[in-house]
Specification:
The protein has about 140 residues and is mainly α. It has a single domain, classed as Ferritin, core subunit, four-helix bundle (Ferritin). Helix content is about 80%, strand content about 0%. The chain has five helices and no strands. Helix 1 packs antiparallel against helix 2 and helix 4 runs antiparallel to helix 5. The protein is globular. The relative contact order is 0.17.
Amino acid sequence: MEKLYQVLNKQVANFSVLFTKLHHFHWYVNGPQFYQLHAKFEEFYDEVNELYDAFAERILMIGGAPVSNLKGYLAITSLKEASGTERPEEMVRHILDDFKLIATELKEVLKISQDLGDEVTADLIIQTLSSFEKHIWMLSFTLK
């Protein structure tokens, strides 16, 4: 079970960093696609905020302790923070890369949870993967 706590906690950290990055991009996006990207980044951070909470609460439900501070998040996240100099297309690329990385890691979480017979956690992961794979597809087509 300890391994499941670790991989879930990594996703809590990832969601925290992604939430902050999405806010940064939402605030600083500019150019011809401002309205579309501004709204899309808000949509993404609202979803990520829900996932952040759901994953942390799931850890608590199965007997673990979610990481809950910035120092802890930054120590275990797979993501990089925004640099503050990204152009709109780079913002989209960074978010796409983050969704891809998280989706890859979620597949590991899914395997671990299924191996433990934890189908509730597996269901949370599958729902998240389904959403992220759609985002990956849409963002990929945005960059074409």
